[in-house]
Amino acid sequence: MFFYGSSLGFIILLPLIAYAMYAQSMVTKTFNRYLKVPNTRGITGAETARKILDAHGLNDVKIVKIAGKLSDHYDPRSRTVSLSEAVYSGNSIASVSVGAHEVGHAIQHAEGYAPLNFRSLLAPVASFGSKYMMILVFAGFIFNILQLIDLGILFYALALLFQIVTLPVEFNASTRAIANLTDLGIVYDQEIIGSKTVLKAAAMTYVAAAAVSAGQLFRLILIRNSRR
Ligand SMILES: [Zn+2]
């Protein structure tokens, strides 16, 4: 009843979920494809990251190797760029592109880039919200307490806001990555097309995730209003 209650909401949500699954498969496919294409200079993801960081005076930002695939990230608390094995040690177009992207976040952090600050501010609220929103909504329906449903929807909206704020942060990190890869001569003209393809595919997964959340929120609101 709860999950299939609103058919209109479901009709809207379904293509968004399909789009998210497509985006996810595309990022893996594109990453794997460019992981097989070595860059002309034979430079690794870790070397790329170091080179860009140093060029921005961020000599004290650490670069570490972590397990997993596409698990690359930047942690502002420890000021550490964590790169997965294939990115850290690989000398492919994909490796340098992802390495440059993560460094983009470190530069955003150092510059006090506003969307990143706002995102960090929202992060604890969003993670709290996404943990409890479903419990609240479920409890609200079971006990027929509208306020609980509304609180759950509010938490959901905050989690969506976090995903929306993530978008400029991600796009901007990729724009910086492309500029740095070109300006520092890490990749050549024809190779930058590959970098752009890899980073665009990654950005699409964030857009898709936000779209699914927006669809889910819309559906929840429809279900809530049909209960009144
Ligand atoms: Zn990123």
Question: Could you characterize what this model shows?
Answer:
The chain is mostly helical and 228 residues long. The chain has one domain (7-39, 93-227). It contains seven helices and three strands, in the order H-H-E-E-E-H-H-H-H-H. The protein has helices at residues 7-35, 45-55, 85-88, 93-111, 114-142, 146-183, 189-227; strands at 62-66, 73-75, 80-84. The protein has a three-stranded mixed beta sheet. A hairpin with a 4-residue loop joins strand 2 (73-75) and strand 3 (80-84). Helix 2 (45-55) runs parallel beside helix 4 and helix 6 runs antiparallel to helix 7. The longest helix has 39 residues, at 189-227. The chain starts with 6 loop residues before the first helix and ends with a helix. 38% of the residues are buried. The chain binds zinc ion. Zinc ion binds next to helix 4 and helix 6.
Level of helix content? over 70%
Structure classification: mainly alpha
The distinct ligands, each listed once, are: zinc ion
Low-confidence stretches: none
User: What is the tally of beta strands?
Assistant: 3
Identify the strand order in the major beta sheet.
1-3-2
DSSP helix count?
A: 7
> Could you report the average pLDDT, rounded to the nearest whole number?
92
Evaluate the radius of gyration: 20 Å
Counted up, domains total: 1
Write a brief structural summary:
The chain is built from seven helices and three strands, in the order ααβββααααα. With 228 residues, the chain is mainly alpha-helical.
